[in-house]
Amino acid sequence: MNRTLHDALLNLTTLVKSCGDLKLEDRDFSSLQHMLNVADTLHHLTGDVRNRLEHALSGEKNKLASSNKTIGAVAV
Fold first, then answer.
1. Are 15 and 35 in contact (CB under 8 A)?
2. pLDDT at 21
């Protein structure tokens, strides 16, 4: 797993555990801002990871289709 993504997930988990029992109105501005920053970072990183995975899967599908065409051409 990407180290930055791992760190963001760890930060988010820590925040959820530490703030989970508090009511939203009881949290101070700095902790809310920190939670928002972590959530934004996590959203950005997961979107980037998703794009990379989709690109990799697309490449694998193209390779598979190409090899299937080659196998079909050799078989004929």
1. yes
2. 57
Count Cβ atoms within 10 A of the Cβ of residue 38 and give its class: 0-12 exposed, 13-18 middle, 19 or more buried.
buried
pLDDT > 90 fraction of the chain, expressed in percent and rounded: 0
How many alpha carbons fall within 13 Å on the CB side of residue 60? 6
**Cα gap 37→16, rounded to integer Å:** 13
* Residue 67 predicted with pLDDT over 80: no
Tokens of 13: 């988990």
Q: How many whole angstroms separate alpha carbon 5 and alpha carbon 74?
A: 45
pLDDT beyond 70 at 38: yes
**What does the alpha-carbon distance between residue 19 and residue 26 come to, in Å, rounded to a whole number?**
10
How many Cβ atoms are within 10 Å of 39's Cβ, its own excluded?
A: 14
